[in-house]
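To: structure desk
From: M.T.
Subject: fold request, one chain
Message: Could you run this one when you get a chance? Sequence is below, nothing fancy, just the single chain.
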Amino acid sequence: MPESIGFAKLLKRWLLGLFVACALAIGVYALVTKSDETQLRAAGQGANPQAARTMPVVVAAAKTGDIGVYLNGLGSVIPLNTVTVRSRIDGQLMQVRFKEGQTVRSGDLLAEIDPRPFEVQLTQAAGQMARDRSQLRNAQLDLERYRGLLQQGFIPKQQLDTQEALVRQLEGIVQVDQGQIDNAKLQITYSRITAPINGRIGLRLVDQGNLVRANDVNGLLVITQLQPITVVFTIAEDSLPAVLDKLKTGEHLTVEAFDREQKRKLATGTLLTVDNQIDPNTGTVRLKAVFPNDDSELFPNQFVNARLLLDVKRGTTVVPSAAVQRGPKGTFVYVVNADRTVGVRPVAVGVSHGEEASIDTGLSPDELVVVEGTEKLREGSKVEVQSQNGLPVKGGTDQPSQGAEKPRRGTRS
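Reply: Done. Structure tokens follow.
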């Protein structure tokens, strides 16, 4: 009897453990099944995120306008004239009448050298000439007397010839005296140093009180002409025929000078000339343009980016350069349709410079193109459009935001 009671308890415990194990298995199975359903539901919702999401983009309307055909080149600013002012006489520098960095005009007094030694030479030459002129007048009077005496037969012909030679000799001496006077006056003129050209003075090279010598290598100062000024830049030799054709017709080509980063325009000028040969090492040719430089934006030896306006394409379709995308099949743009979806439109880009590009084929004026937010776009993506000024575009694509041209309805097929 005790053995049957023990067996019943053991069986009861075994059945209880089996029940607990089955309950645990059923619970685990339910959790796994629910997790799989959740993952499948999430996968189904995320299968096409582009179709479910609306992508914010910035758009702009294609417009009809003019766009320039430019040739770009690297250049440097070269002054038309640069003069090193030197003394033409020896002497002490008495006065300096200019300031460093001063703008002067031709003929302005710059410095004075001690003129007193040359004034003394002038006085000596003038006195010597007065003496020689007196001797010449006396010899001329004697010559007239000898001619009368020769006619009367009182003197031989040789004496008259000798007197004529003496007169010619004294006339030569007087001419030499006049030359010495003129030379002394010239030295006095040279003692006043004036500006030979209009321009800007650099740093002073000699201080007041120093002795200067004629044609000293360093000179006294340097004057550089700043107005007008030139820019010498290079273009590829393949572009040279088009430039020469324009110059042959007498057309004045516009040249713009930009800073190193090509963000700020410094000045606008005109093409002056083309060099007479091509550099065989670089395959480029040098061009020179002249600029008024009224605002002194250009400075000698300054590095600039030159842009030559070769032609203007008029009445072409123009879009922002940011709208043009490039792919394996070429260039394309994202066009916004009336249902606020985008389409991929292949286009042929003509001229592109700065922030604008011309479209030769593939796009019509007034169509809206995406300029920002193209990274995640695909064919048929839903978009929320904004204009370039940040305001949302209300209504359909036929009603752009303020400041944009009214685009046509629909898109071109």
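Reply (cont.): Residues 35-51, 395-413 have pLDDT under 50 and may be disordered. Let me know if you need anything else for the meeting.
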